Amino acid sequence: MGKLSQGFVEALKALVGSPHVSTAAAVREQHGHDESMHRCQPPDAVVWPQNVEQVSQLAALCYGHGVPIIPFGTGTGVEGGVCAVQGGVCINLTHMDRILELNPDDFSVVVEPGVTRKALNAHLRDSGLWFPVDPGADASLCGMVATGASGTNAVHYGTMRDNVLNLEVVLPDGRLLHTAGPGRYFRKSAAGYNLTGLFVGSEGTLGLITAATLRLHPAPEAMVAATCAFPSIQAAVDSTVHILQAAVPVARIEFLDDVMMDACNRYSKLNCRVAPTLFLEFHGSEQALAEQVQRTEEITQHNGAYHFSWAKNAEERSRLWAARHNAWYAALSLRPGSKGYSTDVCVPISRLPEILVQTKEDLKASGLTGTITGHVGDGNFHCILLVDPEDPEELLRVKAFAEQLGRRALALHGTCTGEHGIGLGKRQLLQEEVGAVGMETMRQLKAMLDPRGLMNPGKVL
């Protein structure tokens, strides 16, 4: 039970019911880490509230007793954002999993924090609408809000920052905030500060998100996907830049290096050429798709592409994108028993060829086993590094490589994280990215909303 008194644990049980509170070691351990390599002490208790009123009461109780609060969704983050560095209470929001309100004529939906992106799209299947933001994992939508998540569709549909209309947030002391006003779901506003934007990407450090109003999109009339192999990383990324410069409305454009392509072939039973490769997808009418495909093929051929392989039926497309979403597990299979460490930087599109070519050279020079993959349509890419967590020297090399990559991105006017967040591991890089005044402003905002510093302590700042 750690630092919590028996009386405090009984107070938790009185609020949510005994079955919804656990101090068991195995349960606490499970909630003390995410998919990252960051490891630290677990929380002192795990609580499953059933509604927003209970979340508010739990926050007020914890805050009144000086007990840290750690929000928890599906645990699929990769920056250590759920680690309980000071112990405290982990509030697992997965039991709150209702779709509260669907407004199809206004292209919006209100979801509780336990609703995952796949569950939402299954619910929307017959509505002609969908929610396109798609990180690799089947993450909870409010967790995706908290981390500012993104995915393969971001080049066309935007990230979570572009698709959140309103948030219901329980502040650290238990008060309830509606960031755009209760029940509102307008597309634009010039009314006051952008409180919704403040909480998107806040990583649980400012409050607990208990409902999100999300922007939906019309499901495309038709889709077509393709793979295209290239003689070099430079040729593949030059093609990406040229496709975007030609204003081809590509919905997805993903890069996989030769090592990643080899791993995906083996893991997902693909038969693609082992070479730097682009995965592409186009959405629209049949006529528009034909034009987009033709223009893209011309651009890639101009850059020396080997050949296009089109996936026009739904089954082929699903297989292709399942392979892309399983790239993390494909990479891990290259070195059984290893752990994965995923980097995540984003640079202006024009600097992408330069940083990717340099990163490939750095990866070879480091002696580490790793792959490069990314959402290159918006300048965002990852290295998945495979490491033996029991080898301190190798861990140091991974850390040095990740920091060097982050600083290289900053030097090219980019960011140290395009979508994973800061969490535990990138706090120093955040300081270098936003500067002293930026950090001080963030600390002042944190101190105003969370004066006791109890919301997910040790993260971001």
TrEMBL record:
Reaction(s) the record says it catalyses: (R)-lactate + 2 Fe(III)-[cytochrome c] = 2 Fe(II)-[cytochrome c] + pyruvate + 2 H(+)
UniProt-annotated location(s): Mitochondrion
Any GO BP: lactate catabolic process
Cofactor: FAD
EC numbers, comma separated: 1.1.2.4
Residue stretches making up the FAD-binding PCMH-type domain: 39-219
Keywords: Acetylation, FAD, Flavoprotein, Mitochondrion, Oxidoreductase, Transit peptide
Gene3D superfamilies registered for this protein in UniProt: 3.30.465.10, 3.30.70.2740, Vanillyl-alcohol Oxidase, Chain A, domain 4
Domain of life from the UniProt record: Eukaryota
One Gene Ontology CC term in the entry: mitochondrion
EC class (word): oxidoreductase
GO MF annotation list: D-lactate dehydrogenase (cytochrome) activity; D-lactate dehydrogenase (NAD+) activity; FAD binding
Function as written in the Swiss-Prot or TrEMBL entry: Involved in D-lactate, but not L-lactate catabolic process.
Quaternary organization: Interacts with CSRP3.
Family to which this protein belongs: Belongs to the FAD-binding oxidoreductase/transferase type 4 family.
Family matches, as PANTHER family: D-LACTATE DEHYDROGENASE, D-LACTATE DEHYDROGENASE, MITOCHONDRIAL-RELATED
Protein name: Probable D-lactate dehydrogenase, mitochondrial
Gene source species: Camelus dromedarius
